[in-house]
UniProtKB/TrEMBL annotation:
Subcellular localization, as worded in the UniProt entry: Membrane
Bilayer topology annotation: Single-pass type I membrane protein
Pfam families (UniProt xref): Cu_bind_like (PF02298)
Protein name in UniProt: Phytocyanin domain-containing protein
Domain Phytocyanin: 24-113
Primary location class: membrane
Highest taxon listed in the record's lineage: Eukaryota
One GO location term (cellular component): plasma membrane
SUPFAM superfamilies from the UniProt entry: Cupredoxins
């Protein structure tokens, strides 16, 4: 029994390592970056995301920001309360778990537009 447990632990460790080796960096919006007038839902539908991947949001600092919100806040374009706020112009978010993530811009009426 002890050998079976050791094998299982080894397989799990290898799977996690393999996931991290295969992790990739994904630029949100590709060459468009994080901007107005771009269909991010359509873009996201063409991507394959995995735990360990890093999302990169490129935009002009001060022109936009990135706010991580829950699904309800995303639907309602509400930026408070938020899960995280980024404003560097080259923000990185590591995907740490499976599931949906929602991001909005909180500058002016950008979310509504």
């Amino acid at each position: 029994m002890a050998n079976k447990c050791l094998v299982l632990v080894t397989v799990i460790a290898c799977a996690v390592s393999l996931t991290m080796v295969n992790a990739k960096t994904i630029t949100v919006g590709d060459d468009n970056g994080w901007t107005l007038g771009f269909d991010y839902a359509k873009w996201a539908a063409t991507q394959e995301f995995h735990v360990g991947d890093t999302l990169v949001f490129n935009y002009g600092a001060g022109v936009h920001n990135v706010i991580m919100v829950n699904g309800t806040a995303f639907k309602d374009c509400v930026n408070q309360p938020n899960l995280a706020l980024f404003s560097s112009g080259e923000d990185r978010v590591v995907l740490k778990a499976l599931g949906n993530m929602w991001f909005i811009c909180g500058v002016g009426a950008h979310c509504e537009n």
